[in-house]
User: Fold this.
Amino acid sequence: MRVLNVAYQQLRRYGATRVSWAQKLTFGLIKNDHFTQGFSDRDVAAFEAPLGIRDLGVKKANQRLLETVEAFEPDLVIAGHCDMISNDTLLQIRKKMPHCAIVHCNNDPLFVPSNVERIKHRAAVTDAVFVSTGRRELRMFEGIRARVYHMPNPVDASIENLDNSVRTDLPIDLLFCSNSDDFTERLQNVKFLKDELANELVFKTYGSFGEKPVWGRNYDRALAQTKMGLNFNRQEIHYWYSSARMAQLAGNGILQFTHAGLHFDELMPAESVVYFCAMEDLLASIRDFHHDDAKRQAWAATARTFFHQEMNSRLYAQYIVEAALQMPFSHDYVWARDIRLDGSMK
Assistant:
């Protein structure tokens, strides 16, 4: 199958990239033997614009996408986070290639109002939308045009290639990395933990409290030194929503602490992720696992095995292709057991 993956590919970062779900999707498609072409809207706009001023290249980027579709003749177009591509362009693709399925994948949270409107906007012209929040939270997008599906944050063995669950010589006991303070008060909780644990363990908070943020290889190096991590989202309110941090920690064998209100205990195996409600409970759990390395290793290993076996990029890409083209599901996808092939809930 020929698949065109339209999303920001971070070409102009020249290697200093963030972990990208769009990249993992490409890797998964290729592992499933699909001929996959990438199109990076932001980069093409900048390359085509006068003086490299990206906003001046939006019209040209849309034209180049239409040229790419004509030349590549895809069976499936996946429009990810590509706000520079207009709905009119997607409709033109449908007119040019009536056999081609067009879907939207969205990995951003629903507590950001503009993202809700973005999903609704894309749902009006696509065949399906895939959102990284649990399916039961997605009823607001039903009946627009597109079928509606949940998708997870996957791991990829080439990216999440560490196994810290087998290590006891790691210098960072607890890690939290962040770069956004919008729509969140999570740093108050991080500060509480820093104050309480100041003399007990090594707690790194890159991006906050005077510690510089880490990207690319520096982020990889931070993960490679870490035993335990905080999976703090900007808000802890939506069923099965987490940032990609969950997969990054679990996939590398790093024990993680996640809010119980997200109900990941319904998805993840027992004794794999540590759940908490109150900060005092979280503090007690951190201390418990800090002083019981064997327990920390066992739980982290369970989470790592689960993600690499059941929530990997190959299954992730396979699921999106099958749902997009209405092909019967070929696997018992753990994140989609409450979803029928047509996107409706069981």
